[in-house]
Design a protein that fits this description.
The protein is an alpha+beta fold and 355 residues long. It has one domain: Lambda Exonuclease, Chain A. 32% of the residues lie in helices and 16% in strands. It has nine helices and twelve strands. A hairpin with a 4-residue loop joins β8 and β9. α1 crosses α5, α2 crosses α5 and α4 crosses α9.
């Protein structure tokens, strides 16, 4: 195994029989953030920081549904999507599966009901998991909110994060072939944002592990199986770097600027028609179709903000907004504060484990 988390995951899947594994993963799906409705309506999340399309980013920030008045999670192009439903199910249940496996082989793991014991086969503790473990803070005028998949305490005493991803086997093979470059491009901004929010709360995260696995294991007789590897998993560790804080803050500031501009009717422009990525995968429709408005028809979501309101102080039409965010990682060269002071904020993490 090339990373200790891969070995821990495989050992955990061997340590818990299938019926109990499924039951534990199903119980994980029932966990909720009981205070979610009390949190800021407009918030900057790690996935929002990672959003490639600037128009979609501000629509999400302003809580636009896939279609006006129609709230549906598994949507594509403003309509129900069978493929998206499968992808969401794969991801959420896969997360529960990994939580169940890793909690079986860790030393201790925290739950909403208290501290539980693992087998101790691997030397780490689980401090919390999504969605009951929550990071929330205020910074640069924005409300930040994160639901880290897993927070762990390693043998050397430092808190670390784990992001759990269950890509398709096609994406997984690309990640494997690229040697981590594709994983960092896809998830780098999100990992940086998660560490940033936690560090603002006083938790000195230095590493965020992106754990990718697919449901298809290696076939018996393959080179991997003969080497003792049964599962397809890759772990790419993203370390905290100078400038990541400024990178996250610059995106948050840009979101706030776009939000203020949207109040005046000036919205970011969409990608050109015919753009496959990310438009073909978007939950909003790129162009209108009968009762399904296109993504740029924002007055359909917010009738009070008619596009005719978009005007500069001299009365001329508002200039078009830039299309996308600044390039993701590597971040700017702005130095990270050596000792960040936690602002007023909250964390739903349990108290530290006893030494």
């Amino acid at each position: 195994m090339s990373h200790w988390l891969e070995a821990a995951l495989q050992d955990g899947l061997r340590a818990v029989d299938s019926n109990e594994l499924i039951e534990r993963a199903a119980r994980h799906q029932l966990l909720v953030d009981i205070y979610r409705d009390e949190r800021a309506a407009r918030r900057v999340s790690p996935s929002l920081i990672a959003e490639e399309c600037r128009l979609k980013r501000i629509k999400r920030y302003r809580r636009h549904q896939p279609r006006p008045g129609w709230n549906w999670g598994a949507a594509k192009g403003g309509r129900p999507s069978a493929g998206s439903a499968l992808h969401f199910a794969r991801g959420y249940f896969g997360e529960g599966l990994i939580v169940a496996a890793l909690s079986a082989v860790c030393q201790t793991y925290q739950t909403p009901d208290g501290l539980q014991q693992g087998s101790g086969a691997h030397q780490f503790d689980i401090l919390g998991v999504s969605p009951w473990a929550v990071f929330e803070c205020e910074a640069v005028g924005a409300s930040f909110l994160a639901y880290p998949d897993m927070i762990i305490l390693t043998q050397d005493g430092g808190p670390e994060l784990i992001q759990i991803k269950t890509p398709s086997v096609f994406a997984f093979d690309r990640y494997r072939r690229d040697g981590g470059a594709s994983i960092r491009k896809r998830y780098g901004p999100q990992t940086a944002a998660e560490m940033y929010i936690g560090r603002r709360l006083g938790m000195p995260f230095e590493r965020n592990h992106v754990l990718c696995f697919t449901w298809e294991g290696f076939t018996p007789g393959s080179d991997e199986a003969r080497a003792g590897k049964e599962i397809r998993a890759i772990v790419e560790t993203v370390a905290w770097e100078d400038g990541m804080d400024r990178f996250v803050e610059s995106i948050a500031e840009e979101i706030l600027e776009d939000d203020a501009a949207a109040e005046r009717g000036a919205w970011p422009i969409a990608y050109p028609l015919g753009t496959r990525w990310p438009c073909d995968y978007c939950n909003y429709a790129r162009t209108s179709d009968s009762d399904n408005p296109g993504c740029e028809e924002n007055e359909k979501w917010e009738p009070r903000l008619l596009r005719s309101m978009a005007a500069t102080p001299d009365g001329s039409s508002a200039p078009p907004r830039p299309m996308t965010s600044p390039s993701p990682l590597p971040p700017s060269a702005s130095p990270v504060s050596p000792a960040p002071t936690p602002p007023a904020g909250s964390s739903a993490l349990p108290p530290p484990l006893p030494s």
